[in-house]
UniProtKB/TrEMBL annotation:
UniProt keyword annotations, A-Z: Coiled coil, Metal-binding, Zinc, Zinc-finger
Lineage of producing organism: Eukaryota, Metazoa, Chordata, Craniata, Vertebrata
Coiled-coil segments: 157-202
Organism, as annotated: Leptobrachium leishanense
Domain (B box-type) ranges: 119-160
Name by which UniProt lists this protein: E3 ubiquitin/ISG15 ligase TRIM25-like
InterPro entries: E3_ubiq-ligase_TRIM/RNF, Znf-RING_euk, Znf_B-box, Znf_RING, Znf_RING/FYVE/PHD, Znf_RING_CS
Length: 230
């Protein structure tokens, strides 16, 4: 079984699971590609991008470098020790698939509740206070103690309503861009379809002329053959 030290080296600090498609930031810290991409997306427009691990700042969105050796080791551990992947599931406010649900159900500390679209009555797992804010840098819902005294105290944070409106506005902008792109693609398809019809029409005309020309040549050859035979 993989040692605890080795597992720590292979654990993404964002999702707390063994790396999946790990990538490395310029500061040297590694994360799952999907995890760090989501965090960087939430930091757009904040003036700088920050590493969730060491808080190193980047003026431009940092490039994600494939950590091939780390990925190979993580995949090997995951394939040879599947129990390692299931053992470290953090207890958070998440929607769970059936395999993760079975693991959570085995622990008395993990309380399952019905899915909800509201966080108004959810409490922080650390301070046991109602979640009121959204940490823009770590993409997490936090309570007032997390914001003032906890690990998020120097992070940019919005109220849940503000964060929700920003997310909605961002999604509306994305939807608008996709709609415009879809309309533009539809116009290009129609243009290509019209071009195809024109090309087919020209091709049909050329085929008709070539067929008539071949027929005329054959008739001339037959007439010439008759004259030669006479």
């Amino acid at each position: 079984m993989a040692s605890a030290d080795l597992r720590d080296e292979l654990t993404c600090s964002i999702c707390l699971n063994i790396y999946t498609d790990p990538v490395t930031l310029p500061c040297g810290h590694s994360f799952c590609r999907t995890c760090i991409r989501d965090v960087l997306d939430t930091q757009e427009g904040s003036g700088a991008y920050k590493c969730p691990e060491c808080r190193a700042e980047f003026q431009e969105r940092p490039a994600l470098v494939n950590a091939r050796k780390l990925r190979n080791i993580a995949e090997n551990i995951r394939s040879t020790h599947p129990e390692q992947e299931e053992a470290g599931i953090p207890c958070t406010y998440s929607s769970l698939c059936e395999s993760h649900l079975r693991v959570h159900s085995k622990s008395a500390e993990h309380v399952l509740t019905e899915p909800t679209t509201s966080l108004n009555h959810r409490k922080c797992s650390v301070h046991k206070k109602v979640l009121e804010y959204y940490c823009c840098e770590d993409a997490a819902c936090i309570c007032v103690s997390c914001r003032l005294d906890g690990e998020h105290r120097e992070h940019q944070a919005d109220s849940l309503n503000e964060a929700s409106e920003k997310k909605k506005e961002k999604l509306r902008n994305i939807l608008q861009k996709l709609t415009l792109q879809g309309e533009e693609a539809e116009k290009r398809v129609q243009s290509l379809e019209e071009l195809r019809r024109q090309v087919q029409g020209k091709a049909a005309g050329i085929t008709e002329r070539v067929t008539a020309l071949v027929r005329d040549i054959r008739e001339h050859l037959k007439a010439l053959e008759k004259r030669v035979l006479r």
